[in-house]
Specification:
- This protein is α/β, with parallel strands linked by helices and 235 residues long.
- The protein has a single domain, classed as Rossmann fold (3-Layer(aba) Sandwich), CATH 3.40.50.300.
- Helices cover 32% and strands 28% of the residues.
- The strands form two sheets. A six-stranded mixed beta sheet has the order 6-7-8-3-9-10. A four-stranded antiparallel beta sheet has the order 2-1-4-5, with helices on one face.
- Helix 3 packs across helix 4, helix 3 runs parallel beside helix 5 and helix 5 runs parallel beside helix 6.
- The protein is globular and about 50 Å long.
C-alpha cells in the first residue's frame, strides 16, 4: 500500500541559548492512508515536533517529508498553507474554538475561508454535527458546552472538509476517563466513515486500546513500532 506520509531520516535541531538541542534523530516512517495510529512517549520525546513537521507548521533541519509523494521541503510558505488547507485537519488539546461563534459557526468557518457560500455547505455542516452527536447543541457557544462536547466540535471542524489526514495533539488530555473513551470511540467510528488517516500525539494509555499502530518515542528516537495483530493486541 502506498504511503500518504513518508518521513526519510528526519532530523530536527533547535537552538537553545548557545547550544543545539536535537529534538528528533533520523526518523524514518511511513503512514498509510486510513491509518489510526499514535506517537507515544514522555514530554520532550518529540511527539508534537513530529506532528508539527508533518503538518507543515515547521521544517526539518535535514531529511525529507513527503505527502502523497510530494516533498514538503519543495513548498514555499504559500504552498504549505494550501497543503494544510486542502489536505489536513487539526485537533488540539485545548480545542481552539472561536468563543464568539456557535457550534454551527465554528464548523462552518473553515469552509467559508475556502470561499464557499454558506447556502452551499449548510447541509454538510449540519450532517457532520449530527455525526458527532451535537445536533441539539448546534446553536450553543463553547462556553455553554462541556469539555467533551467542545472536543466533538473540534473533531467535526477538522473533518468537515473531508481531509486525507487528521493530526490530533493530545486530544484526550483535558478530558476525564469517560469522555476520553467516548471521544476515542467517536474518532474510531469517523475514521471508518470518512477514511481519513488519524495520527495522534499522546501520553494517554487509553489511546493504546483504540489505535492500530503505536510508535514509541524517547529522546527523539523511535524505540518501538507496534501494530495490532489478529488477536487485537499490539505487537
Amino acid at each position: 500500500m502506498d504511503s500518504i506520509v513518508k518521513l526519510d531520516k528526519v532530523i530536527k535541531v533547535y537552538r537553545v541559548g548557545d547550544e543545539d538541542f536535537a529534538a528528533l534523530h533520523e526518523i524514518s516512517l511511513d503512514i498509510e492512508p486510513g491509518a489510526f495510529m499514535s506517537f507515544v512517549g514522555p514530554s520532550g520525546s518529540g511527539k508534537t515536533t513530529l506532528l508539527n513537521l508533518i503538518g507543515g507548521l515547521d521544517q526539518p533541519t535535514s531529511g525529507s517529508i513527503y505527502f502523497e509523494n510530494v516533498s514538503l521541503g519543495n513548498l514555499d510558505r504559500t504552498a504549505l498553507a494550501e497543503y494544510r488547507r486542502k489536505n489536513l485537519g487539526f485537533i488540539f488539546q485545548t480545542y481552539n474554538l472561536l468563543p464568539v461563534y456557535s457550534v454551527y459557526e465554528n464548523i462552518l468557518f473553515p469552509l467559508l475561508l475556502d470561499g464557499n457560500r454558506e447556502s452551499a455547505v449548510r447541509q454538510s455542516v449540519e450532517d457532520i454535527v449530527a455525526s458527532v452527536g451535537l445536533s441539539d447543541q448546534i446553536k450553543k457557544k463553547p462556553a455553554h458546552l462541556s469539555g467533551g462536547q467542545c472536543q466533538r466540535v473540534a473533531i467535526a471542524r477538522a473533518l468537515v472538509k473531508k481531509p486525507a489526514l487528521i493530526l490530533a495533539d493530545e486530544p484526550t488530555a483535558n478530558l476525564d476517563a469517560e469522555n476520553s473513551y467516548q471521544i476515542l470511540e467517536l474518532m474510531k467510528k469517523l475514521n471508518h466513515q470518512f477514511k481519513a488517516a488519524f495520527v495522534f500525539s499522546t501520553h494517554d494509555e487509553k489511546v493504546t486500546k483504540y489505535v492500530n499502530r503505536e510508535v514509541g518515542l524517547e529522546d527523539g528516537r523511535v524505540r518501538w513500532d507496534k501494530r495490532r495483530n489478529g488477536a487485537g493486541s499490539l505487537e
